From TrEMBL:
It comes from the Bacteria. This is Pyridoxamine 5'-phosphate oxidase family protein.
């Protein structure tokens, strides 16, 4: 995995531990598609929970595994703008309940009793997507906030 950084010090591991949204970019019949997803950064891969019956991105990735993922950490009040972009290949993997629960706890908290039922019941259509990054671009694009 090649990591490209601009000036500035961004702790990539720290940022990827936050419950931020990622945008998964795939291609279907030459047309780009974008899917907002929750993710888990683990073992130098991005893991995404999906369903072959409810989501289209697993089908697109089976046809063309090349993909990109963009993650932004933004704070208007401070001018913080951090971007991490991944380019690589994805594979649709069998469901792993332990990994899926680690992913969901990041976004929903540790108490599964408070989770929406969509996140507690899985069927044979539930899968994980594993993205193996070939290139990672880490950019600090923060700006100074002008106080008026």
């Amino acid at each position: 995995m090649k990591v490209i950084r601009n000036q500035g010090s961004v702790d990539m591991e720290q940022m990827l531990s936050k419950p931020l949204f990622a945008h998964l970019a795939t291609v279907e019949e030459g047309v780009p598609k974008d899917s907002p997803v929750w993710f888990l950064w683990e073992e130098e891969h991005i893991w995404i929970l999906g369903s072959t019956s409810a989501d289209r991105f697993p089908h697109r990735l089976k046809q063309n595994p090349t993909c990109a993922i963009g993650i932004i950490d933004y704070e208007k009040a401070t001018g913080k703008v951090i971007h991490i972009g991944f380019r690589g290949e994805a594979s649709v993997e069998p469901f792993d309940s332990e990994r899926a629960n680690r992913l969901l706890r990041r976004y929903l908290g540790p108490n599964t009793d408070t989770w929406d039922s969509r996140f507690t019941t899985f069927d044979e259509q539930t899968i994980l997507v594993r993205v193996k990054p070939e290139t990672v671009v880490v950019r600090d694009q923060s700006y100074k906030v002008q106080i008026t």
